[in-house]
Amino acid sequence: MRAYNFSAGPAVLPEPVLRQAAAEMLDWHGSGMSVMEMSHRGKEFMGIHAKAEADLRTLLAIPPSHKLLFLQGGAIAENAIIPMNLLGARKGADYVNTGEWSKKSIKEAKKYCTVNVAASAEDANFTYVPPQSRWKLDAGAAFVHCCTNETIGGVEYHWTPDTGDVPLVADMSSHILSRVVDVSKYGVIYGGAQKNIGPAGLTIVIVREDLLDRALPICPSAFHWKEQVEADSMLNTPPTYAIYIAGLVFEWLLAQGGVPAIEKRNVAKAKLLYDALDASAFYVSPVRKEDRSRMNVPFKLRDESLDGAFLKGAEERGMVQLKGHRAVGGMRASIYNAMPVEGVQALVDYLKDFEKQRG
Amino acid sequence: MRAYNFSAGPAVLPEPVLRQAAAEMLDWHGSGMSVMEMSHRGKEFMGIHAKAEADLRTLLAIPPSHKLLFLQGGAIAENAIIPMNLLGARKGADYVNTGEWSKKSIKEAKKYCTVNVAASAEDANFTYVPPQSRWKLDAGAAFVHCCTNETIGGVEYHWTPDTGDVPLVADMSSHILSRVVDVSKYGVIYGGAQKNIGPAGLTIVIVREDLLDRALPICPSAFHWKEQVEADSMLNTPPTYAIYIAGLVFEWLLAQGGVPAIEKRNVAKAKLLYDALDASAFYVSPVRKEDRSRMNVPFKLRDESLDGAFLKGAEERGMVQLKGHRAVGGMRASIYNAMPVEGVQALVDYLKDFEKQRG
């Protein structure tokens, strides 16, 4: 039986995708091979790769000004790769600090440049997104970096920053494809695939073409965006099976009506869960209402001594991976695109039942 | 129907591994999740990860002095990561140039240090391994790098270099697990998984513990061996599904009798193919006999105008991906661990039949 899986990543995938992957495992479309076994330069995989790229371009409405790369290493690797690709002759970059993932980006960037923390929500334990009116940007910065959805803290930008001529760089790992985004407003969008796209080990990078000439000489070829653009993401062997699964997820998303349709569903799912949390004094949702993430919903039991019983009861009902990140404790329900509304409803029912029993 | 897949990588996997992966795709061991959907920090995946590590340590008889990492990026990324981790205060490293993969390593290392090419087989178009008596090593080098099996040229070290106190670093991507190796003789062994281990996107690094203190400050955390050792390869989200498949391959290998047993089979498979090539004037095997790779067998038709007909006829018999690498042309049969002897026999039969028809 399939569980309702609230993991923050790697995370739930659409069941039809998994069924198709299982059916095609030994022989993809009569090729006699699993996708895992295909040369990345053979006609079969080249077709899978091109289709996945085209479908993602369609889903995100990526304009021709922006290149799309399928790489490796996840957001943590990319945190180093970004300054290595974007600094050029500049010595500093602006970072907005909204939580654990921002902090990781800042720590890594300091290896390569001066980091100006343009704004920080640390004063309120990272429970909000600092409004742009409070950002102190440096006009000479190589770029402005923000994490537009903090997977651990559960805060999300519901607006697009305006950084003028300085390129805006966004880690969208945990909400990419969950909402309509105007890609043209960003210099770089990046993210690990293992939250809203597919298996861990695939990294998406979307980069405006005019930014491809700024790489430092120390940038490894495998992570050198311009070299990878010229090699069609195949300078090194790409994570072929992860790209195939991501491609199936893209097809599934298109069949759901694309990003505008899934966004509507995500708004409804998030409202269902936050309303239940807000309706009770037994649970606490720490994030400021305007900045709550639709994807990652951290919450606490007011009486933390009940955490163990809560998690055990959830597992008995087939709801798994609800334990919060060790950095913040409590609970976290990640409700990505592939989480059906039935899963959120089951959690809401359980929230009420548990409170009745133990409240 | 399954093809005989001679791809150089990504490459053929054991059929029982693919069958098990298909069967477990929607629900791994009653967890209600695909392995792809599991948090890398959950008890289910932690168990899969630990078992894969332990089995690989057993298969390669990795001594306690050496740490094992499951990372991302493949050998091309690692070519940059190695000098970033090993240079310390030294300014140069020795490289032995045996072909296309050595050249890629050298090109990348030059971003970080002075490269001394200690020996090169370029004088004979990379058809042999320069004997160590001809290596001109620098006693002050940070390390000595060699590629112990050149996937494209098809040359293989059948002996272990002795570099004294200077750490020996080997790219074993395309023959790791195909033969018994004394790991204790190496400072670092690395390789992409997509040839003899599992899906693309997983990189194996085996590093002697005393070498972990030499990283440059510019080394990205995701590729910083010491930080990854301390984080048990989980500083960033590992490529979880690729690790799971690799783990199934390790279990399959152990069931075959481990590396000594598979090596015997590989010796027999290679002999079968090389004997057939040597018995005919219609085909040419360019590599010096003592240095021929057991894994990658490049060969040419003396009349290259027949290449297209040869490949077409092979596909009609269910033998795919025999086309040689674009850098050298001709044909290449990669006969990794998972290629059954029946596949090699089918190729040998075809070599004879094609010669009869067209010779």
Describe what this molecule looks like in 3D.
Two copies of one chain form a homodimer. Chain A has 359 residues and is α/β, with parallel strands linked by helices. Chain A has two domains: 5-9 and 258-358, Aspartate Aminotransferase, domain 1 (Alpha-Beta Complex), CATH 3.90.1150.10; 16-255, Type I PLP-dependent aspartate aminotransferase-like (Major domain) (Aspartate Aminotransferase, domain 2). Chain A has nine helices and twelve strands. The first copy, chain A, has helices spanning 15-23, 43-60, 74-86, 100-109, 225-230, 240-255, 258-278, 307-316, 341-358; strands at 4-5, 66-71, 92-97, 114-120, 144-147, 168-171, 188-192, 203-208, 283-284, 296-301, 319-320, 331-334. In chain A, the strands form three sheets. Chain A has a seven-stranded mixed β-sheet with strand order 2-8-7-6-5-3-4. Chain A has a three-stranded antiparallel β-sheet with strand order 9-10-12, covered by helices on one side. In chain A, helix 2 crosses helix 6 (240-255) and helix 7 runs parallel beside helix 9. The longest helix of chain A has 21 residues, at 258-278. In chain A, 53% of the residues are buried.
